[in-house]
Amino acid sequence: MMEVLILGAGYAGLRALRELQLHHDIKITLVDRNNYHYEATNLHEVAAGTQPAEAITYPIEEVVNHKCTHFVQGEVEKILPEKQLVRLSDGQELSYDYLIVALGFESESFGIEGVTEYCLKMDDVDSAEAIQHHLHAMMIKYQETNNPEYLKIIVAGAGFTGTELLGALLDAREKLAETAKVNPNQIEIFCVDSGKQYLPMFSEKLSAYGMKHLEERGVKFFRPKRIQAVTDGVVTCDDGTELTAKTIIWTTGVSGSHVIKDSGFSAKRNRIAVKANLTDPDDDKIYFVGDVAFVVDDTTGKPYPTTAQLSLKMGQYAAKDILAKAAGKKQAPFVFHSLGTVASIGNTDALGIVGPAEVKGYPASFIKKAIMDRSLMETGGVKEMLSKGRADFYH
Ligand SMILES: Cc1cc2nc3c(=O)[nH]c(=O)nc-3n(C[C@H](O)[C@H](O)[C@H](O)COP(=O)(O)OP(=O)(O)OC[C@H]3O[C@@H](n4cnc5c(N)ncnc54)[C@H](O)[C@@H]3O)c2cc1C
Known about the structure:
The chain has 395 residues and is α/β, with parallel strands linked by helices. The chain contains 9 helices and 26 strands. Pfam families: Pyr_redox_2.
């Protein structure tokens, strides 16, 4: 019986699993370091404390069909293509006929001094919860010391993730202020970014709307400014600007999983430039999907931005491609049509593009939640949608 090994139970991995589980004549093994799936697209809400982790997670076992799938909780250490094996950190080795690598993203420090030591990252549920706990602790510290540095938050990076985090932090300000026993306006939120245009994936008009909205609610932008170094509580830019805060959150960009580099694959920022059917250029048995893959959009000549939407489609495609191969057939090359790109700037506001139309404000936030719910539906199905009460968008 054909053995398919899936690494990672994120968007791409679980979408592949759901597709393969429709065919019981396959032996599937799924590996993840956690026993739960998390919606990475909502990590900023957990970091800010506007959502508990339980609202964006569900047990992986709930989507595993034990008739054909075996779930292994473990840390993937290395892929050994020449032996068709994957090694876990506990020494276990798992074999495969086909491998789907869906290990997702990690924060990228771009080698900037002090980032790893002094910045908080938002890569997964544990790191998002660590931000939430840190913010709470800083509010308590303020009460004890009256030192305003404890009330300051710096977000490094004003891309999609940084923007969504800024919106959530503004939403969280009242609750944080209650803990610190201050006026919400005393909690200062700064954002440093090097880009010429804020949110360059959108039109200048739409970007200006987002920035104005965040500024009006209290974010102070420092841009375009390139961060040169970070020390304990200090961000230094290359024009000499120094910003201080007891909380510095790093959201300047991501790369693919370090397992790619550790396994010796040739990649750029741990992303493999895959073939048209999403396989490794040197190995037809290994598929790279989601944030560990790099695919160029033929219509624009640019790589598709790494998103949950793209990951879901890649996961589904890889599973179908394996099934087609098993049946002696060939699939058409992978193509992706985005449903739209919408960034939230708080719980009830957003901005983005849906088809040819620009959307903003409350309607955009509604569309954003609909897109997120579709992703939940595609990994967890109706059961998870209902258990998360997602039909009610603004409960
Ligand atoms: C705050 C934020 C907001 C975002 N908003 C949007 C949005 O609005 N729309 C959108 O489309 N995209 C958004 N994204 C991007 C999106 O979340 C990613 O593109 C998507 O999560 C990638 O999916 P994936 O399946 O490749 O990997 P992931 O979702 O990262 O899943 C990877 C899985 O692999 C597991 N794993 C990783 N390493 C190991 C290991 N060594 N051993 C075992 N298991 C491992 C992890 O536990 C995880 O379950 C956002 C991202 C962030 C951080």
